[in-house]
Write a structure and sequence with these properties.
homodimer, DNA-binding, mainly alpha, 3 strands, three-stranded antiparallel beta sheet, Arc Repressor Mutant, subunit A
DNA sequence: TCGTTATTTGGTAAAATAACCAAATAGTTG
DNA sequence: CAACTATTTGGTTATTTTACCAAATAACGA
């Protein structure tokens, strides 16, 4: 049984969670996770995918490995990485919702798009 | 620092996603999201919760608002923030799984706890 | 063993992030 | 309007993250 909410103001817990989320918070790392969703890949394949220096890619993978998001398997000269926690993928659907909201809000057809500079609007610069 | 041009056309999408995930990747912000799960709170309440300077808290909230994670509502002198995308919360269960794995791996009762410093173990410092 | 390939590690510099203080802004009350 | 409160913005500094290069390590085959 997993206690949903441990001791309140357990600051350390949120630091642990932040550490893991930080390991996700980079475009190249997200791209690699997306690729790993369809199965394990060697570093060389991931390097070609993201297009950065291979040492950069290796370090990105190390960050995710240290966070427990991926795991690796050595096979001769190659190291293959794979997702360790597939539930991560479901989260990305939620991120898509955020982006969808953003896109809708940016639509010129929506209300309050012209002239509606009210106090409630945080970007209102009317004096 | 040289930023390479994207190789895949969807590179920009991953940059957008990373921007949103970055907005989650801070212990104070996670703490606030956790608090907002039970309903909207004013900045002053959140400030008391996280214990940082109120300007710091305000900036954290601005980061999350810009990312589309929270939204605000002005009520007299107060500004109340609330979650805009509750599905974020479900994601945290997945983060808990990662932490659970980590804790299990670190258990002193498990195998390979003493002397088993193998090449496969990331924390192996044997040369 | 030597040479080759795949990956990691160490170092450095640029860029991004985060904390706090001081000042500005917005809204309330008298 | 003046005084007061809640919040945001601007500025500065310290810390963290990131990218690349150079060198090290690991595993293979001749």
């Amino acid at each position: 049984m997993v206690r949903k909410k441990p001791i309140t103001s357990s600051r350390g817990l949120f630091e642990d969670k932040a550490r893991i989320i930080k390991a996700l918070a980079h475009p190249s790392r997200l791209l690699m996770i997306d690729a790993l969703a369809s199965g394990e890949k060697c570093v060389c394949e991931l390097q070609e995918l993201v297009g950065s220096d291979i040492t950069t890619v290796s370090k990105h993978l190390a960050v995710m490995k240290r966070a427990g998001i991926v795991e690796d398997r050595k096979d001769g000269l190659w190291v293959h990485y794979r997702l360790k926690v597939p539930c991560i993928l479901r989260f990305f659907d939620c991120i898509d919702i955020v982006l969808e909201n953003e896109r809708e809000a940016g639509k010129p057809s929506g209300p309050a798009r012209r002239g509606a500079c009210l106090a409630e609007k945080p970007n209102c610069r009317k004096r």
